[in-house]
Structure formats: C-alpha cells, structure tokens
Fold:
Amino acid sequence: MKKIILAIAAAVICLTATAQPLQNLKTVYKDANVTFRKLDKHTWIGSGNVMSSETMYIIEGKDKAVLIDAGTTIPNLDRIVAKITKKPVTLILTHVHPDHAGAAGCFDEVWINPADTVFVPAFMPDYKGTIKYLENGQLIDLGGRVLETYFTPGHTPGSTTFLEVGTEIGYSGDSFGNGNLLVFDDFQTLIKTCQDSYDYFSSKGYSKFYCGHFFGVNFETLERIQLIQTMAQEALDGKIDGEPTGGFGNMNTVITRDGFRLNYNDLELEKERFAQKYQSVQPKDFDENIFSLVGDDWTVITAGEDPNSMVASWGGLGIMFNKPVTWCFLRANRYTLEKIRESGTYTFCYFPAQYKGEILKFGSASGRNTDKMDQTKLTPMETPHGVPAYEEAKVIIECKLIAAPTVSKDEFYTEEGKEFLQGGYDEAKDWHKLVYGEITNIYIKK
Structure:
C-alpha cells in the first residue's frame, strides 16, 4: 500500500505547474494544511498542501451539507468545515485513497463506495466512526440541491462521481485522472466506465466536472472521457504501447496523448490481454483428444527466460502423485531440456493445422546455435504466470517440472524402443530423459 501512496504522489506532481486562478477566489479559511475558497454562495473548494492540492468540496443545501473528500493531513477538518457552513455535514468520499480519506477520522460517519472497502485497513486504519455504503444512483437531498451518486470505477474499484441534479456539474475525484490517470482497476472496467459515463452524462446534460486535484482550469469534460476510452481500448487491444515511467509504485508504464497521461502496470495489462483471448479450464474439464493433439498437431515445448522451443510428437497426460501431469521423452542434449531444468517451468502448446509449417521450423536446428524465433512467424508471449508460449496456440498447457529421470535401453523390452533410445544415446552420449511436469494451468483459446 505504501507503493500506492508513492504512485499517487508522483503522478500528481506534474499538475503543480498548472496555473492556479483559484487564487482569484475569495478565501474563507486558511492554515498550514488547507485553504478553503468560495466557488459560489453555497459551494466551497478546499485545497490541501500535501499531494498536489488534493481537493475537497463543501456543497450546502437549505437543510444540510456534504463534504466531498477529506484531503491528506488536515487536523480538525470537521471544525474547519463547521466554520464555513452551519448546516449539519456528512462526509462522502469519491474513493478511499490517502489523499482523499486522510482526515476522515475527524468525522463520526463516512460514506464510501463498497467496492473500495479493501483500501480501508491501509488508508483509514484508525477510523473509529461508522462506515456507510453508497449505492449507485443514490440521491442525496440537501434541501434545494440534490446530488446523485454515479459509480465510475477504473482509478479504483470504488471510484464515484457525484452529480448535481439539474445542473451541468459533477464532482469526479480522480475517476478521470485530473490529466494524469492511474489505473489501479482493469482496463475493461475503465473502458466500460468511460462509455457508460459518456452516454449517461450526455443524456442528462452533465458536461463539467470538478476533479480531485483542481487548480481552477483543469475541469474534466466529456471530450476527456472519450479520449480516455480510446486510449484504454487501444492499449488493451495492443495497438499502442506505453513508455517506462521509472516505476512509481505499481505504475511503471505511461501512454501520453493530447497532454493526457494514462498510467498503468504493464504486467497487469498483459494478464488482461491474455484473459481476453484465453479461457482457463481445470484438467478434469479438458476434453481435447490428446491422441490428436500429440499425434497429429504435435507439441511445441517452450521454456526459459530467453525462450527456446522444440517440436515433439511423443508425450501425453496423466496422473502422478495424485496430480495432473504431462510427460515427454527428450534427448539429453536438447537445449529446451536445459531451459526447462533452469527455469523449472515450461509450456506445451498446440496449434491449428495452418501453423504446422511454422512449428516444424522449431525442429530444424538447435537453439544453441540459432535464433529460432527469427525463423518463425509465430508470436511469442507469456502466460499470466510469466511462462513463455505463443499467441497463435489453440491450447496452452502450463507445467512445473517434477522430475526428469534417465531412461536407458535396458529399461525397454521391445527392439523398437531399444533402437530409439540407442539412437538418442549415440547423438547425445547420454540416455533420454523422461520429463514429468505438473499441470499448473490449461488455457483454451476463446
């Protein structure tokens, strides 16, 4: 969780250079930790001093008021707010991050999106009050002013935008990034959020959104939401790749377009791309004909941090030590066997018939002396667990090495077997290895 704090802080630093016409607004309260200014007769904006002007909003109605977000480190925030509005105040959070929930402990009650409950132990560890949960579409009637909750996950699972009914205004926290969005949720969620939000906001006339690090000019807009959706979709589809950021916490990659930065973790995005293409199945539910896979389609065995592949037409699946396993015979001098022993993990990949010519190239020469990957049109990738495989595979069986015992011709009772093993010995000056691997995952292309 400390990494998340560092990532948030680093990501909003670039906003500090923005012009700050908020200084032109009337200041109603100021101390070393926060400044509150008047937006209009019944609306105030608070700017904290820790994480790039982390922003709070007081929305006052005829009967009561809400405080949207609670900054980072603001002692006695409840008393400060009471000096600005005399109406009873309820704290509501756009999301549970330390620069938005930091002073929540000043209030006896706080409302959050239930999807962000996972962050409470880290970012509200000492909170003694009552936590209540917002509902999507919930109306908060302040008397003459009504806010509607609209869930906008993506930055966090529980990110929420508060819409002021009958106006063009919303309060979006970090949902759309303040110019610099950090995606702690997944891209598919973010894409859906942008599409649904754009449609809903447009239909209801919302077009101007006060964000979580506001300087007076950086409103979120419908155009920004469309831009985020486009960037996220292209990233998920693999049409664009980000640049390394130096690794601020979990956010190690960024895509920049039209002055907007989309920050994410490249490994998490790769896992999401993989999940779009492949379905994970349990070994007991694997109903492919292994005789056809191995005997007709042939197995491509791949292993290593710098991967090497070989093609095999012998092998099978079974049970060993009450675990689902694969097995195959490999000559002792196979470079792929060396890679399997080094890494302890490998894959069996099976391909549609049109790739037969490509996989045969893996048997044309040793990977010790040539780059096999340059000889084939297949596309290298990794499974979600970092084991090498190929995008064109229709079946990927991920394995963890159990054993690779030596098998000599003396253990075989047919001349065919003895001849086969002797041929392997003559080449490698060692006997074949019978390689057993525990099946850790099976993936079927969707």
